[in-house]
Amino acid sequence: MATPGQLMFARGLGPTARLLIWLLIGVGCVVLDTRYHALDGLRSGFSLLLQPVRETLRAPSDVAAELGGFFTRHRLLQKERDTLLAERARLMVNVNAARELLRENAELRSLLQLQTRPGQQVVHAARLYQGHDWFAQRITLDQGGGAGLRSGLPVVDAVGLVGQVTRVYPGSSEVTLVSSPQQLTPVFVERTGQRGLAAGSGQNRMELRYMPAQTDVRQGDRLLTSGIDRVYPAGIPVARVPRVTRSQSGPYLRVECLPLAGLDRSRAVLVLIAEPQVVTQ
Fold first, then answer.
1. Which in 9, 81, 92, 184 has the greatest CB count within 10 A?
2. Among positive and negative, which fits the CA dihedral 14, 19, 20, 25?
3. Per-residue pLDDT at 119 exceeds 70
4. Are residues 80 and 122 in contact, defined by beta-carbon separation less than 8 angstroms?
């Protein structure tokens, strides 16, 4: 039974009618939005409302991409660091080799200048090893009797007197250094011409013996071979004086000397074969 105010024979819209109505509304909205942009404001409002949602949904992918990029960059930086370290090591090897070549070239140029002295016959030799006993103050060269060497020949490097050949083998020879306690070298002071006798005291040290207390010997003086022993040619640099001590009780000076030659570092040396000429100072 119908209630008061209700039409007895009223009929609702069917599904087809509703669909047509919504289609007409949709088409109308499309036409209005296309022709007159009537829905731009509504669209902007929905976009603003959905912005936090979009940011929240995109956050996991952004974090994953950032972490992936971090690890990728970290691996690339590690590889680049390893490459740079290897390159640095290679360059350091090349630099050290270049420095060694420069040093050897300078030493060889000095030896060539020494070889050009008139009447000087020399044999080029190289140091093989120092020897098992450093206190013996001996070195071994790669030239021997086959190159014409014999005992007693002086050995020099690019700076000064190294020592004297004391033992000869067919393919090698043994040199006693000027710093050996067994070696005595007649010298003179370059500045004054005063003669003396330089004796080895071991461990790259020498001393000028038997110099009277009134002798004019100063710090920095250079000692050269005098040639009076007919073993060493005259004028070869031997040592430099670093200290002179005057004794209050003894009659002689204590004159310490440092050999000028590279006794512990020279690789190339010259063995002087020509008979030395006696030079009177």
1. 184
2. positive
3. no
4. no
Nearest to 204 by CA among 253, 160, 152, 149: 160
d(CA 240, CA 221): 6
Name the more confident of 229 and 169.
169
SS3 state at 265: coil
Spatial distance between the Cα atoms of 203 and 252, rounded to a whole number of angstroms: 23
**In whole angstroms, what is the distance from residue 209 CA to residue 187 CA?**
11
The span from the CA of 24 to the CA of 30, in Å, is 10
pLDDT surpassing 90 at residue 175: yes
* pLDDT tens-digit readout, 54-91: 778 777 877 777 777 777 888 888 888 888 888 887 77
DSSP 149-185: --TT-EEE-SSSEEEEEEEE-SS-EEEEETTSTT-EE
Q: Tell me the pLDDT of the chain averaged across its residues.
A: 81
Model pLDDT, residue 61: 78
Name the fold adopted by 122-272: Thrombin, subunit H (2.40.10)
* Domain spans of the chain, in order of start: 16-116, 122-272
Say if CB 258 and CB 240 are below 8 A apart: yes
Which residue's structure tokens are 């992918």?
Answer: 61
What Rg value do the Cα atoms of the chain yield, rounded? 49
| pLDDT, position 222 | 94
CA distances from residue 146 to 168, 211, 247 in whole angstroms, order as listed: 10, 42, 50
One-letter amino acid for residue 145 of the chain = G
Residue 98 zone, left/alpha/beta (φ > 0; ψ -120 to 50; rest): alpha
The residue whose two tokens read 């370290």 is: 85
Sequence-ordered list of residues with C-beta below 8 angstroms from that of 231, at least 6 positions apart, any chain: 152, 154, 164, 276
